[in-house]
Amino acid sequence: MESSSETSAMGFPQILLEIGPEDSQNPDLMAIQQVSRQMIKDLKQDGDTVTPVYQGQRGGFETLLQVGITDAQTLGTAIMAHKDAFDVVVALCTIFTSVRSLVTHLLHSDDKVQPQTHDVKVSITIGDGSIELTSSNLADDERVKQLADHFLRTYPGIKITAHSPVKVKGRVSARRKH
Question: Which 8-state DSSP code applies to residue 84?
């Protein structure tokens, strides 16, 4: 499904968040619902807007949400030092910084569900490129810059702006056996 590059009333990007099974042959609907509910709660507590997206089918395994970022993170000096020379890097850094809170909540959603029964893997698709995310590669501005450089090495020549379509995808594993 394609995402749009709309912006919120504050001018911050609208992010398409998809939460689904890691293994489509063995989906754990309860785990997906738990992660989805926790994400909605956390994002709303952060002041972000969360709107379910109708996918044209009933009973699917995935939850699709449109997230309006209301408080974009400020770019730090490590990123701003590269702004003039690297417009694409700055656009990627802006996108990665904007989704930092969302990704952190998604990666740590299992920490809030007791007992901890599943893992969540997160990827981001920007334009035609997609990479896996961890909380450590979004930890600070320097790591965000390194992630942007990695994205560009993986997808050389890709055209990215701060308004490129962005989709964050969370994949929830089946429950772990205790």
Answer: T
Of the candidates 92, 177, 165, 162, the one whose C-alpha atom is nearest the C-alpha of residue 133 is: 92
Beta-carbon contacts of residue 138 (< 8 Å; ≥ 6 apart): 96, 99, 100, 103, 104, 144, 147
pTM of the entire predicted model:
0.65
One digit per residue, the tens of pLDDT, for the chain of length 178 reads 233 344 444 455 678 888 888 888 888 888 888 888 888 888 888 888 888 777 666 656 677 777 776 655 556 666 665 554 468 888 898 899 888 888 888 887 766 655 556 678 889 999 999 999 888 888 888 999 999 999 989 998 888 887 889 999 988 887 665 5
